[in-house]
Design a protein that fits this description.
- The chain is 42% helix and 15% strand.
- The chain has twelve helices and eleven strands.
- The protein has a six-stranded mixed sheet, with helices on both faces. It has a five-stranded parallel sheet with strand order 2-1-3-4-5, sandwiched between helices.
- Helix 10 packs across helix 11.
C-alpha cells in the first residue's frame, strides 16, 4: 500500500484513487478540495486522511478549467525596491488568501508597450481579477480585461476614468500637511523634489503642497525631478543644492527618494538635517523611523488600502456591487528630520 514512507511508483495520484481509499465518491473528493463546497466533517476527514496517505494534491489548474474560476489574482507592479510595496504585497497576499484567493506577481516597467505585454501574460493565466499597483491602465489593457470579463482595481493610482475602481490615499491633503508643517517651522526657502510626472500620486501631492504654500503666503523656492528613482533623486539633490542660495527645507515626493537625498545632503554636501535643511517626505515606510533617518513623513494607511482593494476585487469577481472608496485619510508623522 503506497504511503509517504513508501515512495509510490512514477505517476500522479488521481482523485479516483483517493475516493477508493476513502470509500467515498469521486465527487466527494472534489468537494473536499473545493473552497466553499458543502461536505460533512466526517467525509472531509476520511478524504484528507486518504489523500495524505497517498500523497495526493488536487490539480488547481485543472479544476479552474472545469469551474471557470482559477481563484488567482494577477498583481502587476512596476517596482518592489520602493519599501512601501513589499509591505503592501505581503498584506495583499495574506488578505486575499484569507478570502480563498492567491496572488500571482508580475513585474513591468513604465517603458512603452511593456505594461500591455505583461498584462497579456497575466490574462493567459486565466486569473479571476487583476490589481495594478502604481502602474497606469492603458486603453489596451482595459479593453482586453473587459473582453475577458476580468475586473481590475488600481492600487495607489487613479486615472479619473468613469467607473474605474481605484484605491488611493488623500495625497493632496498629505502634500498640504507638509507645506503647513514647514511654514509653521519658519522655513522660507522651501523646495520640492518631484516623482514621476505620469503618476497621479505625484500630481496630487505636489498640488496639495503648492496650495499649502500659497495659502501660507509663500511660493516654491526650487523644484527638481527625481522620477521616484534613487539615482535620479541624488542628481536632483546635487543640482538643487549647487547654487549660492540654498533651500532651507525640501519636500521629497516619497521616502524611497528622501533617504538618498538625506545621504547626499549630509555625507556629500556637509549640510545638517534639520539645522541647515528640513526634509519631509511621503509614505512613512518602516525605514523612516530608523535613527539614521528619523524622517518626517506622511503616513499612508497601508492596511486600510489593502482592505479596500481586497473588498473591491473580490466583490467584482463574485458579481457583487463595488464602489471605489473616497481617498483614504493620511497622517503627518513628525520626526527629527524637520524638528531637531
Amino acid at each position: 500500500m503506497p504511503s509517504r514512507a513508501e515512495p509510490r511508483p512514477a505517476g500522479k495520484v488521481t482523485s479516483l484513487e483517493v475516493a477508493e481509499r476513502a470509500g467515498v465518491s469521486r465527487s466527494a473528493v472534489s468537494r473536499v478540495f473545493t473552497p466553499g463546497a458543502s461536505v460533512s466533517r466526517k467525509t472531509a476527514e476520511k478524504v484528507r486522511r486518504a489523500a495524505d496517505e497517498l500523497g495526493y494534491r488536487p490539480n488547481v489548474l485543472a479544476r479552474s478549467l472545469m469551474t471557470g474560476r482559477s481563484r488567482m489574482i494577477g498583481l502587476l507592479v512596476a517596482y518592489l525596491d520602493n519599501h512601501f510595496y513589499p509591505i503592501v504585497l505581503e498584506q495583499l497576499s495574506n488578505a486575499l488568501q484569507a478570502r480563498g484567493y492567491h496572488v500571482l506577481v508580475f513585474m513591468a516597467s513604465q517603458a512603452e508597450g511593456d505594461l500591455d505585454r505583461v498584462a497579456e501574460e497575466i490574462l493567459d493565466y486565466q486569473v479571476d481579477g487583476m490589481i495594478l499597483a502604481s502602474v497606469a491602465m492603458t486603453s489596451d489593457i482595459a479593453a482586453r480585461c473587459r473582453a475577458s470579463g476580468v475586473p481590475v482595481v488600481l492600487f495607489n493610482r487613479r486615472q479619473g476614468e468613469p467607473g474605474e475602481l481605484a484605491v488611493v490615499s488623500d495625497n493632496y491633503a498629505g502634500g498640504r500637511l507638509v507645506a503647513e508643517h514647514l511654514l509653521a517651522l519658519g522655513r522660507k526657502r522651501i523646495a520640492h523634489i518631484a516623482g514621476w510626472a505620469g503618476a497621479s500620486t505625484q500630481a496630487d501631492r505636489e498640488a496639495g503642497f503648492l496650495d499649502g504654500l500659497r495659502a501660507g503666503g509663500a511660493a516654491l523656492f526650487a523644484r527638481e525631478v527625481g522620477d521616484f528613482r534613487p539615482e535620479l533623486a541624488k542628481k536632483a539633490a546635487r543640482r538643487m543644492f549647487a547654487g549660492p542660495e540654498l533651500p532651507d527645507a525640501v519636500f521629497v515626493a516619497n521616502d524611497y527618494m528622501a533617504f538618498v537625498v538625506m545621504d547626499v545632503l549630509r555625507a556629500e554636501l556637509g549640510l545638517s538635517v534639520p539645522g541647515d535643511v528640513a526634509v519631509a517626505s511621503f509614505d512613512d515606510v518602516p525605514t523612516s523611523a530608523w535613527p539614521s533617518y528619523d524622517l518626517t513623513s506622511v503616513r499612508q494607511d497601508a492596511r486600510a488600502m489593502v482592505a479596500a482593494t481586497t473588498e473591491l476585487i473580490v466583490a467584482r469577481i463574485e458579481g457583487r456591487a463595488a464602489v471605489a472608496p473616497a481617498a483614504l485619510p493620511v497622517e503627518l508623522i513628525v520626526r527629527s528630520s524637520t524638528v531637531g
